[in-house]
Amino acid sequence: MNDIMKMIRFDLISVSRLTVPYVAIFAAVCIIAALFSLPIGIFCVVSFVMIIAPVQGINNSSCKRLYGMLPVNRSAVIKALFIEITFTLFAGELLAFLCFLIVRNSSLYKMLPEKVMHFAEDLTKMPEKEYTMLYMLAAAAFAFITIILCYAQMRSEIKSMEAAIRELIIIIAVFAAAVSFISVMIYNEKLDALKNILLPTTSAGKWLLIAILNAVTLAAAYLFCAVTVKKASDKEL
């Protein structure tokens, strides 16, 4: 565990001046916008990817040999990378949730121009079961991005980044086709049972789905990490 924490600290120090200030500024903008009931906080999940982007660039380039010079086990390096991906994006999801909560309870939107004010006011008056959809979108973004990045990390460690990219293109294309097909079928009222699972009608159902999405994401990240450690921990950097 000490080696893992050392690697996380090393990586965070490495990116602290590259991306963290810009992501922090964007997070502050999202919170300020939330005070005026503008829900741009949903982009926090995506923006937090930028924190670890330089680390991923180092890990998948010729600079990767740098890790081989550090006094830590190869398995610790791998585990640290997966933890950074998962918990950085999870922090983005939590910040998005905080922004949505502020949006719901702030009244500063009354200071905005009339057209924008009406839009913000509609959000604050939206029924709870409909407003919870914003939380679901943030959770879905967290799940999708985290699983994709963890899978790419696993395949790049075991095979190569080129192979990982090729496989991701195929996976994303199949996923997009499946989502499009399911969306059309739900729109035409052909898959009502599936619709009730993917889009619960109650707030409690939506929060249960959010919890399931988070649990599945953490389980997938752990599985990808375990497979990577087992197959790539003995490889030379």
TrEMBL record:
Highest taxon of source: Bacteria
Regions that span the bilayer: 12-34, 40-59, 80-103, 133-152, 164-187, 207-229
Keyword Lipid metabolism in annotation: no
Keyword Membrane on entry: yes
Record's keyword terms, sorted: Membrane, Transmembrane, Transmembrane helix
Protein name as it appears in the record: ABC-2 transporter permease
